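Reply to dn_fold:

You asked what the input looked like. This is it:
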Amino acid sequence: MGRFIAVAAVGLALFLVFAASASASLPTVTYSIEGIAGTNGWYRGSVYGDNVVVHWSVSDAASVSPTCLAAAPVPGPTTGTILSCTAKNASGSVTVMTPAIKIDDTPPTVSASLSRKPDFTGWYNHPVAIHWSGTDATSGIASCGSVTYRGPDNPAAAVNGGCTDKAGNSTGRQVQLAYDATPPVLSDVTEQSAAGSNVLRWSSSSSSDRIVVRRTLHGNKTHKTIFDGRSAGLADKKIHPGAQYVYSVQSFDQAGNSSNLVTIAGLPKVLTLRKTSYVPRAAPNPILRWGRFHGAGYYNVQLFRGSKRIYAAWPTSHHLGLPKSWKWSSHRFRLTPGKYRWYVWAGLGARKLARYSSVGSASFIVPRP
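and this is what came back:
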């Protein structure tokens, strides 16, 4: 009986020890991370700068490892730092580890480039692509911008763009360019023929537009640039009497845009007896001119339209300006559109002698307005 009681007492003691062990628990270890969340699992530092802080919380522990700080700093930048905390009690030990903490609070370094050089003296006059590129030593580049600038016109157009790294840090870089894709407008191009020059006038969108004037002799395929500059007109004095010209006028703005090309005829104001491969069209109220004839005291000039004589004069000099209108054979005449032929005779001796020698003849056309 005594032995039974002794065995029962030992069994009770063992049960009490087992029950006590079963009721005891392992330490509890938790943590929280204080930081500014970025993208792709990265942190972009914290309120403490580029450090991220891990806060450990431990309960029911008899001892803890030195790493179990209430505020454990994780220095940045880093591509992955793991912290751990170990706590022990009579029931055993618990170790908790953080995931890899990645920190990048440094924005990427960014540069920008345009797809081509300016079109004209520093100006772009049609769409141009702009690309941004960057480098990032820690998390790497996630994306960079790209845009095609198409306007509006601006001598200092500002285009914004940049790059973002994988942590979500961004760097912007502004690109400035001079842009003008609008061509100038050339208008009011006129030509007025004088005895010694052809006078051209025009108007362009801006007084700073560059004007280029080219001249072509009628029947000639080559042209000559007679003006390249800034002006509202010019007097072309290097013309041949009786020659018919074609002028082409075009304006260019500071960005290299060109206006429409305007062509205009330079009709001769002075008509001569020289032979030409074409019948010239005459300017209004032309001047007839011929070479001096030795011994002539006067000249007889006659004007025909078709087979009908409509005008005659006896000038003493070797040129004659046709009037705007005149009276002949009891009829009023003027130069209407059509083809005319004129003749010149040299008067030798007194006019009453009516001694004449032919100087020559030529034709001209009065064009329609």
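The CA atoms of residues 62 and 90 lie 7 Å apart.
Hope that clears it up.
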